[in-house]
Amino acid sequence: MFVDKANIYIRSGKGGDGHVSFRREMYVPAGGPDGGDGGKGGDVIFVVDSGLNTLMDFRHVRKYCAGDGEPGGKRRCHGKDGEDIIIKVPEGTVIRDTDSGLVIADMSGDHKREVILKGGRGGKGNMNYATATMQAPKYAQPGQKALELNVTLELKVIADVGLVGFPNVGKSTFLSRVTNARPKIANYHFTTLNPNLGVVDLDGGKGFVIADIPGIIEGASEGVGLGHDFLRHIERTKVIIHIVDAAGVEGRDPIADIYAINKELESYNPKLMERPQVIAANKIDALYDGENDDAITLIREEFEPQGIFVFPISAVSGQGLKPLLYHVRKLLDEINEAPTVFEREYFPENVRFEEPYTVEKDEDGVFVVEGPRIERMLGYTNLESEKGFDFFQKFLKENKILDELEALGIQEGDTVRMYGLQFDYYK
Description:
The protein has helices at 171-178, 227-231, 254-268, 294-303, 321-335, 372-380, 386-398, 401-407; strands at 5-11, 44-48, 63-65, 85-89, 93-97, 103-107, 113-117, 148-155, 161-164, 196-200, 208-212, 239-245, 277-282, 309-312, 358-361, 367-370, 415-418, 421-424. By secondary structure, the chain is α/β, with parallel strands linked by helices. The strands form 4 sheets. A 6-stranded mixed beta sheet has the order 10-11-9-12-13-14, with helices on both faces. It is elongated, with a radius of gyration of 32 Å. The relative contact order is 0.12. Residues 345-427 form the OCT domain.
């Protein structure tokens, strides 16, 4: 079964906590601190696997977690780092933040291996906090918290050329005729429910990759039918071959069909209409006099003035295919650009410290500052030492907490309370 979209949960590893301990050895009655550092948490890493062409595996496993770092130990022992988790995906997979829809990574081109979530940093043991004035620190740094994210995986096929057209106009037959692809072909609407890729080999020329984009219907850009599931696969293509039933076997108007499909492409992504198009007027074997038929003439009169060439073809007999393919090759040579790779828009590492905090003034005129990160900072900062207090002041300034206090009207000598600790404010 072909699956081109999946929602999963990923989490990096938490950093191990630093350890608090003191040397306890014979003849060393007052040993110094020897608490070791915690290990780093594991990363969440996505890797392109060339053997995959579907996101099927993610239908069964939806939760992926890296290993946590181990806490530090006594005698300066460093905690073991958490194991990374490697997630294999097909080339062309776009990773998005589920909530915002922003792109985290596009596993295409040179992007074969991407660290999506970094593991938490290990906390420092109390051996790191010994100073001349604080020789026996009884605190250690906790490990950095893990990052977690719900992500959406979208597989967008990587092809030079995309085939579009209404269902049952002969796209699968065309693909099987000009490439090594062997799609299932039957005379039913919506027979093709997943993209098929094939390589076109031209005599004395460079080949190219072509994709049969499943049948698009009116309203597809708004999600009608399998709209978005179909349309996403054409976003990377450089040239569009628009296949129509020139013979009107099912009573359809080929000119109206072309405009209808182009309207859906433009509604989904206006940039798609900037790409070169070629019209393949298929099923001329069903016309009485083929090349000179009025239907072909009408299509040419409508679209060739717009710069869109029309090629009468028969996907069944192979008539007219070579001129079409060489024209497409010429268009690709003129474009000569790398496949579309979506730019990164979302950076999970920037979210790690965006933890809420509050700065308020209570009824007694005391300024109260609270928040989880502030509480952790107080837990491992020695405010009795000059170095520790300077470190804490820098933290308040960099996180704009001092700016918020001033915005509330704090004056020199006013009281600030943070989790039971009270300070007098001075600039």
